[in-house]
């Protein structure tokens, strides 16, 4: 299965100024598979080390001397280390802080050697490292579950993929293609982007085994909880995991997770799950211009899960048929899908953090699902599960913040509205004139590629 990060890996390989690369991502999102595929297609020699499985190999990195490390690995794996021809892949590198530190010296003393490392829990190690982090001596890339476009490619729907990729705001979009994409979007809502689930469906064209795969993946995530602390802390992590999956897009209130556990313990569990890249926290900001984080409130946030298929599984949503796949939970799934696509749709070297806007006032509540930066402009995004729906919060935001253009993502075909009008109840302004870029949900991952103004 093709992953779009492969293009970035090819650019990294050819770059004479490259550094050792650390790929960060949640468990089972395809890091190892993608790197092995990349190695097979681009290198003559390949050495893979799994520091979690091969604990004795950790001792090789104790010296921090690149040439000595290379000599020992050459002897152990009977593979030559030739600059330009050999890729060294260090998997589960988070197990050995010394191995992470050694990357610095490889960059300084052996810059011609290609080295990629990865780990599902690496953020925990980076956060707790007692050694000096090799800042400026390594590059980072971020991997996520398969995007909807990658899902379409896995299904060999290259025509639909091309239609999505080639669309510009000046074009019309075929209704027949739109309807076919929506059918597959509903399928993706259930299967999600975990490579094992996608590969199973591609090979078997059977949906009955997907729940079993999701169940096993959830158990493997919970198995990792044993690495995070005491049994009580593991219980908090499980409580938060299930709370997030059932409360996508809702402002987190610790009392709703558990009335019997101190908020600091629940907050710690949220942070640990975020560091494991199982969840993402979308934080409230009052900023409407770049930098969007300048007025960010770190204590007000809503969660999004790392994969929509896993959300469905944890929430107990069963597949009946494609027409009924989007249930009463459809608004939540639409928001999960869009936020997941926005996060994964950024460049691999850029860790996309999302923000939203909320106003809580008597008789005057308003919420924008996401504030998203495109170029040097910030746009409000409203997410709708159907083809219709009011845009009251969007109108309030545009009027109050003196913004000209809003974005709506829904299930309808693309429509670009210019100089639209709406009545608003804002002091000093009763009528709003604005532009509306209305796009199907499946364009969320491509949003940063559009020129809106």
Description:
- The structure is a single chain.
- It contains 16 helices and 13 strands.
- By secondary structure, it is α/β, with parallel strands linked by helices.
- The protein folds into three domains: 5-142, P-loop containing nucleotide triphosphate hydrolases (Rossmann fold), CATH 3.40.50.300; 148-349, no CATH class; 356-449, no CATH class.
- β3 (86-91), α4 and β4 (114-119) form a beta-alpha-beta unit.
- α8 packs across α14 and α10 (210-224) packs across α14 (308-315).
- The two termini are 36 Å apart.
| Helical content class | 25-40%
Q: Which whole number gives the mean pLDDT?
A: 92
Which secondary-structure class do the elements indicate? Answer: alpha/beta
Placed side by side, the strands forming the largest sheet appear as 7-6-8-9-10-11-13-12
Overall number of domains: 3
Percent strand:
15-25%
- The unreliable regions are none
Order of helices and strands: HEHEHEHEHEHHHHHHHHEEHHEEEHEEE
- Separation, N- and C-terminal Cα atoms: 36 Å
The value of Rg in angstroms is 23 Å
Structural shape: globular
């Amino acid at each position: 299965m093709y992953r779009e990060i492969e293009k970035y890996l090819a650019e990294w390989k050819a770059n004479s100024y490259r550094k050792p690369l650390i790929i960060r991502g949640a468990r089972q999102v395809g890091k190892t598979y993608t790197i092995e595929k990349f190695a097979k297609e681009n290198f003559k020699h390949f050495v893979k080390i799994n520091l979690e499985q091969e604990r004795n190999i950790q001792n090789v990195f104790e010296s921090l001397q690149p040439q000595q490390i290379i000599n020992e690995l050459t002897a152990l794996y009977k593979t030559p280390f030739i600059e330009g021809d050999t890729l060294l892949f260090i998997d589960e590198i988070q197990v050995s802080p010394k191995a992470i530190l050694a990357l610095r010296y490889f960059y300084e003393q052996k810059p011609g050697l290609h080295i990629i490392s990865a780990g599902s829990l690496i953020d925990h190690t980076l956060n707790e490292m007692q050694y000096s982090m090799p800042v400026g001596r390594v590059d980072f890339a971020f991997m996520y579950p398969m995007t909807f476009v990658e899902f379409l490619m896995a299904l060999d729907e290259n025509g639909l993929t091309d239609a999505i990729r080639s669309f510009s705001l000046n074009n019309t979009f075929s209704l027949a293609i739109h309807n076919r994409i929506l059918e597959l979007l509903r399928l993706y809502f259930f299967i999600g982007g975990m490579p094992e689930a996608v590969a199973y469906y591609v090979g078997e064209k059977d949906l009955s085994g997907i729940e079993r795969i999701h169940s096993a993946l959830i158990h493997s995530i919970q198995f990792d909880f044993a690495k995070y602390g005491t049994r009580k802390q593991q219980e908090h992590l499980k409580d938060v995991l299930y709370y997030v999956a059932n409360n996508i897009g809702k402002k987190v209130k610790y009392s709703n997770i558990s009335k019997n556990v101190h908020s600091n313990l629940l907050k710690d569990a949220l942070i640990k799950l975020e560091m494991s890249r199982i969840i993402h926290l979308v934080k409230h900001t009052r900023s409407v211009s770049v930098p969007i984080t300048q007025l960010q409130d770190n204590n007000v946030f809503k969660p999004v899960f790392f994969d929509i298929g896993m959300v469905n599984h944890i929430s107990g949503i069963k597949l009946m048929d494609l027409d009924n796949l989007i249930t009463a939970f459809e608004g939540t799934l639409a928001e999960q899908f869009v936020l997941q696509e926005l996060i994964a749709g950024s460049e691999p070297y850029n860790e996309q953090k999302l923000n939203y806007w909320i106003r809580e006032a008597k008789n005057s509540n308003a919420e924008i699902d996401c504030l998203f930066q495109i170029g040097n402009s910030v746009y409000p995004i409203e997410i709708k599960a159907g083809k219709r729906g009011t845009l009251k919060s969007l109108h309030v935001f545009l009027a109050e913040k003196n913004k000209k253009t809003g974005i709506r993502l829904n299930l309808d075909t693309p429509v670009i509205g210019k100089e639209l009008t709406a009545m608003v109840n804002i002091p000093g302004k009763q009528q709003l004139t604005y532009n509306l870029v209305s796009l199907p949900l499946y364009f969320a991952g491509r949003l940063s590629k559009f020129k809106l103004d």
